[in-house]
Design a protein that fits this description.
Order of helices and strands: EEEEEEEHEEE
Mean pLDDT: 95
Low-confidence stretches: none
Number of domains: 1
Structural class: mainly beta
Shape: globular
Radius of gyration: 16 Å
CATH class: Mainly Beta
Number of helices: 1
Strand content: over 45%
Largest sheet: 10 strands, antiparallel
Distance between the termini: 19 Å
Helix content: under 10%
Number of strands: 10
Length: 155
Amino acid sequence: MPKDPAMELEYVFGYRAPVLDVYRVGSPFGQRRIARCGAGTISGPQLNGEVLEGAHDWILDGPDGWGRIDVRAHFRTHDGCVIYAQYLGVIEYNEKYQAATRDGGEIAFADIYFRSTPRFETDDPRYAWLTQSVFVGRGRILPGFTVHWEVYRVT
């Protein structure tokens, strides 16, 4: 039995960005969808600013009904720092996901397994803590096919 306290999650920020379009590319590994996102907003107790237009997600759709996400994005904080973000993860293509993406609806965090492991890069000393921590995220879909992520620091 460990004597140290268990790891915990600390909410850092959330962000929203619309999906502008999706391109499909077949490959020997499965169907790949490349989703291009527009500008969005970042808000939270430790990070505020904007998602800069041009983020992409290279999603590999698996025959098991799950997608493997590979997102690259860049943010600008309220005080001018540009941060590169990359995260890998998985998304469950369940019935609620199918309905929301077909009808332009919404999915609650609890309705889908949509998880990631974000990693951040910046040389700005004010945000060095982003490069020195491990993060996890959970996602959902908002009306109009907007992605909404919550990002947590593992303590």
